[in-house]
Design brief:
Blueprint lengths: L83 H14 L4 E8 L5 E7 L7 E7 L6 H16 L6 H4 L1 E6 L4 H9 L10 E2 L2 E2 L41 H11 L5 E9 L3 E4 L11 H19 L4 E4 H4 L7 H7 L5 E7 L13 H21 L1
Parallel strand pairs: 3-4, 3-7, 7-10, 8-9
Antiparallel strand pairs: 1-2, 2-4, 5-6, 8-10
Helix pairs in contact: 2-9, 6-9
The structure holds zinc ion.
Zinc ion binds next to loops.
């Protein structure tokens, strides 16, 4: 059975959003964190409400091995954005409550020494292929973490009712790939995009999505920057490919996996796009039509869920040159055939997606992921 969810609410369902020109990495919105009201400060939360009620079409058939104990930590839900401690406690709890299918591991340490945690969801079938979902490589894109944690929650709590195309995969979910930056967007600068690396005696940060080795630092002969060697630049690529521990964690986890990865989904915001290689050049990648078809199937599922329209195409076609990106690397070097970057909501609110839209965005993407997995197994 394939579980397809409808959102509990669907404001603006019929509205098509059309904007022909946009700037995907708009840094003009740089007000301080004190302006933020949508973020829950986990330290003040005392309510235990982890048994979030799922939409009625989904029932949980997995019984936790033992009863939940009372915990100091607090609420995980998709009604607001959460701090790193809440998110990590959430995946740790999933592992504890569903040990047959959940494993949490630390795949690396950030520049400032924080754990980069990964939740693996798997029935341990040796014939499975692997799926990668990462979020908040750009830390200001909070909705991405909400979406992948939602997918984790639905997957785990409904695992035995889900279709084979879902359960025959080993799901590798990295809710916060850039934990230093993520915390900094809560405590310092809400619009921070990079990690918290120091170069030249100051914390300048590296754009982790320009730090992968494929086409790293490539000059394409056009004025458009695929990345920058200027440490103060928002697209600073770092001093060398994989100079940053966060990108190394991705590389080593994927290349070190005994299970072949078939799908790589990196979640960003805010332009409502489904994009695929190449980012570093104009010509279509070898699987262009195939990826276009798969992306279109995802976009259709999104539209059927909430009415939102996501455009589909190559990175270069829909945005601009980008060199050293994770999806160009995953596609070309790691040989992951379905490599996509999903730009979540919203063009209207940019990085500050209202918390009231979190659930709609989560549900529409979950339905898209279901359709992608069906497509992957059929092709
Ligand atoms: Zn991004």
């Amino acid at each position: 059975m394939s579980v397809s969810l409808k959102p509990p609410r669907s404001p603006r369902m019929k509205r098509m959003q059309r904007q022909d020109l946009f700037y995907i990495y708009d840094d003009r919105d740089a007000s301080s964190v004190s302006d933020q009201t949508e973020c829950a400060d986990g330290s003040t939360q005392t309510i235990i409400n982890r048994r979030r009620r799922l939409p009625t079409s989904v029932t949980n058939t997995i019984t936790p091995r033992r009863k939940l104990k009372k915990r100091k930590i607090r609420l995980m839900d998709w009604k607001k954005y959460h701090r790193l401690s809440v998110i990590y406690a959430f995946i740790d709890d999933l592992e504890r409550d569903f040990p047959a299918i959940c494993t949490v591991s630390v795949i690396g340490k950030s520049v400032e020494g924080r754990d980069i945690k990964m939740l693996k969801i798997s029935n341990s079938n040796a014939n499975n292929s692997a799926v990668w979902l990462d979020a908040c490589i750009h830390p200001r894109e909070w909705i991405s973490t909400a979406v992948v944690t939602y997918i984790a929650d639905v997957l785990v709590r409904n695992f035995h009712t889900l279709s084979t195309s879902i359960t025959n995969k080993d799901w590798h979910i990295i809710p916060v790939l850039n934990p230093d930056g993520y915390e900094y967007t809560h405590t310092g600068e809400r619009m921070w995009r990079k990690n918290r690396a120091w170069y030249g005696g100051e914390c300048v940060g590296v754009d982790l999505n320009r730090n992968f080795s494929y086409a790293w630092g490539q000059s394409n002969g056009e004025q458009s920057n695929g990345s920058s060697d200027d440490p103060s630049h928002v697209f600073y690529r770092g001093p060398a490919p994989f100079s940053e521990p966060e990108t190394v964690a991705v590389r080593d986890t994927i290349l070190g996996s005994g299970t072949p990865f078939k799908v790589f989904l990196s979640f960003h915001s805010y332009f409502e796009l489904i994009i695929f290689p190449w980012g570093n050049r104009k010509d279509p990648c070898p699987d262009y039509l195939h990826l276009l078809e798969a992306g279109t199937i995802m976009a259709r599922a999104i539209h059927e869920t909430t009415g939102k329209t996501y455009k589909v195409g190559s990175t270069k076609d829909l945005t601009y040159y980008a060199c050293g990106t994770s999806i160009d690397w995953s596609y070309s070097i790691a040989k992951i055939p379905y490599s996509f970057m999903v730009e979540l909501r919203s063009r209207k609110h940019k990085f500050r997606l209202p918390k009231e839209q979190i659930m709609d965005n989560c549900v529409e993407i979950w339905n898209a992921v279901i359709k992608l997995m069906e497509y992957v197994d059929q092709n």
